[in-house]
Amino acid sequence: MSITADTTSADYTIPWDGVLDAVTEGSIIAFYTLAPADGSAPSTSEAAIVRYSRQQLGGTVCGPDN
Q: Does the pLDDT value for residue 48 go beyond 80?
């Protein structure tokens, strides 16, 4: 996925449909690539592993509205 950002900050939300709704728990590998607007070489961050779980303490699996 590509997003456009200014030089001070960037935000991105991982889509629910087809991504987060596909699993109840597991791990996500996250990284980013910055491609400078001047056309110079892009750089990619180190990968980070993020633990992901939609299961609440009582056993209920969270959805997009809870």
A: yes
